[in-house]
Predict the structure.
Amino acid sequence: MLNKYFKGSIRATFLLLVLCNSKQVTAQNISDEGSIHGNYQIDAQYYNPDSLINAPKVPEKMLSNVFGNINYQKGKFSAGIRYEAYNNVMQGFDARYKGQGITNRFARYQDKLLDITVGNIYEQFGSGLLFRTYYEPGLLYDNSLDGARVISNPYKGITLKGLVGKQRSFFTVGPGIVRGFDGEVNVNELLDSAGMRVKTKLILGGSFVSKYQSAANPDFIMPENVGAYGGRISVINEGFNFFAEYAVKENDPSLANSSTVKGKQYYRYKNGDALFISASYATKGFSFLLQAKRIDNMSFRSDRDASVQNLLINFMPATTRQHTYLMPAYSPYATQPTGEVGGMAEMQFKLKKGTPLGGKYGTEVTINYSHANALKQVNVADSTTTSDLYKTNYNQAGVDLYHDLFVEINKKFSKKIKATLMLCNQFNNINIVLHNTPKGAYSNMKSKIGVLDVTYKYKSNSAIRFEAQGMLRNNKDTLNLGSWAVGMIEWTPNTHVFVAVLDQYNYGNPVENLKLHYFLVTAGYTNGPHRISVSYGKQRQGIFCVGGVCRVVPASNGVAISITSSF
């Protein structure tokens, strides 16, 4: 049954189509008539049950995720819609994505003074500690704000933003109202206007975000208005960049920070705060990056009873590397918004050409280390009765949650051969990171990983790539599944076609008959903005992350197809 949100989407779509077709605009860039552009993606899989890898039986046999964006622009005006269809949603995504409809629509007008948007809005204040809405189809994550936003540049170097609305929640919106204001001052642009030029670039910013949600809890007094505020600074001088942001959130008792004592649920009435610092320097042949982050009780949602990734108002920047190779990415780290402290250091340098280690073409080396700890919490109330208040100190850290140390070497040996070597050591406290239980049933994941990736370009636009990976583990519980070996061959005969064969072998599984090979064959065709790929085989259960936001991917066996296109 159509809800009010969906009906409003249809009306907005009808208006947009009228605007787009009022002068018989075609899908071309025509300066007099405006332009239409967009993109589509279709993902579908036929599932076979497989008890050995815990791939469940799927009643529908085939599941699919589909979306398409259509955007129109003419002069200072732009508008767009996105249609999504899940019949039913593919495994590994929230089952509440079920059905189809227009989930995103907006209209925008921009001139020198005002930038006004109504409809679904994507925006970020600073690094996102207080506010960020974005769309990530790989995670099926969309927390867009359905409302209005105004951006103004009243004077050169000054940017003001204000917004209000409700967040998307599957095919409707959440119950809470989100209000936000952000101001940013580019000091250099102000000085330029006054005829003063300064080499070092300085940007200052501040934000305020609040949410309103009615409360009807008979046992607890819940704040209906919750505010959060913070400031930031950015300094840039040639190759040096420094950024720091600090944010505070007023007490916000919610499901995310609640605890259970003697069978009764209690909430934490404690202010939250977050600090994020990033410094980097880059010059020819050398760069470094240092990041630090501390988060305490900063889960901020427009619905206090929401869970998982639903209705998040803010975003905690990741200070760990998001790996692309399968084994280093096997057990990634998910940011802990209720409390963590950690950071990352990375150095990249290039060994010069003509040296013994640099060789004819030079050698690129990356060394990266990241670490995360829980916060050390000290109760300030009787933990046997409430457990709702605690204190933390900046000079104290709790138990280890995660660390990752790796060295990556990229080397070109000739015009035809190049290779990547990676050595990696990881630790993941999965009881806390994945299950939020300090004394869980699983062993900590301790992994030693090696990756070798070699590409042989035997002629122009044609190549063969070989990839070998290994992960050694001493863990023997049923979740960690022991050690793995991975091999892949990818053939690209021309710029349009590729074929790949992948084998993930769980040779270290503690259960003998579960020492399985996960074979996967993939073929694809690319032509300009269009790409089609088909795969068949087994996929192991794992975790997929983007920027510290993760989802669990269940084991599967079957045929999958993916089609992407843009215009």
Observations:
- Helices lie at 4-21, 187-193, 430-433.
- The mean pLDDT is 89.
- Residues 111-317 form a domain with the Porin fold (CATH 2.40.160).
- The radius of gyration is 26 Å.
